[in-house]
Design a protein that fits this description.
- By secondary structure, the protein is of the alpha/beta class.
- The protein contains 11 helices and 10 strands.
- The strands form 3 sheets. Strands 1, 2, 3, 9 and 10 form a 5-stranded parallel beta sheet that branches.
- About 45% of the residues are buried.
């Protein structure tokens, strides 16, 4: 257990058929006809959080919130932070500035109306705020979001901005909006991902634990960790016609994920994004 540093735990609430890797193989028009598993998976996550006394931030898709409003209310009722993941998991770099603004406004209002709380945070689908979307932070500030967690500052074929700062920063001059990247470790001039996602399932748990301990103890920084509800669900429907590389990334070690998370909850201290980074948000 890291005795002093508190890390930020977050959940990107989307179902298995909504992930970006499947967008070429599952059309959005099919979403309502596919069996949803997100409610049961989030309820299991809430049970795990309660068991280990973990509070977290849930970055919720508006599409999910609209269909499962009681799930949103339970998240809020159990003391977790409700934040926005956009409405339908469309990458920011595939939207115009107007489309993006309409999307974040729609989702923020929807979540606030259902949850009865202010939505401060936003996370872009697939960490898709990049050099092609210079207007994104202006839009988030205009729509009264206090922070974004939309960068994973690594090299990756689907996302990532390796030249971005590793730790919380203000992307706009004269504006309080904060960007809080997912955690990485700097090793010999290269960045190692240690903030969750597929890497947490790929590496042995001891590697992730070592990296987070190094971040906490040697750099004195809070980590930002994320995972998805479908990652604890090895019984989810398997998709046909999916390339081997995509299948490997999506289904790898799903059966080990819950056990690894429980070890992570025991080995480190965790809280909501808005609590861990309150010094930035209250400034």
């Amino acid at each position: 257990m890291s005795p002093a540093i508190v890390n930020a735990m977050s959940v990107d609430v989307e179902d298995y058929f909504q992930v970006s890797m499947f967008e070429k193989f599952i059309d959005r028009s099919e979403w309502d006809s596919l069996p949803c598993r997100v409610q049961d998976n989030v309820e299991r996550i809430l049970e795990l959080f309660s068991l280990h006394q973990v509070k977290a931030t849930f970055f919720m898709l508006g599409w999910i919130a609209e269909r499962f409003p009681e799930l949103v209310r339970r998240i809020v009722g159990e003391g977790h932070e409700l934040a926005s993941h956009g409405y339908g998991h469309v990458r920011v770099n595939r939207q115009s500035e107007k489309q993006f603004k309409d999307d974040v406004l729609r989702t923020k209002k929807l979540l606030e109306d259902i949850g009865g709380v202010s939505v401060k945070g936003y996370r872009a689908a697939s960490y898709s705020i990049d050099h092609t979307t210079p207007w994104a932070y202006d839009v988030l500030a205009e729509t009264e979001h206090l922070y974004s967690s939309s960068l994973y500052p690594i090299e990756h074929d689907l996302y990532g901005k390796p030249d971005a700062p590793r730790f919380a920063f203000r992307p706009l001059q004269g504006c309080g909006l904060v960007e809080i990247p997912v955690s990485t470790l700097e090793l010999r001039g290269k960045r190692m991902p240690c903030g969750g996602g597929g890497y947490f399932r790929l590496y042995p748990y001891v590697v992730s634990r070592w990296a987070l301990q190094k971040l906490n103890h040697e750099e004195g920084k809070s980590g930002v960790f994320y995972f998805h509800p479908w990652e604890i669900d090895p019984k989810q429907p398997r998709q046909s016609g999916i390339p081997l590389k995509v299948r490997f990334r999506h289904y790898l070690n799903l059966h080990r994920m819950e056990q690894r998370l429980q070890r992570l909850f025991q080995d480190f201290r965790w809280d909501r994004m808005d609590v861990v980074f309150s010094e930035y948000l209250d400034a």
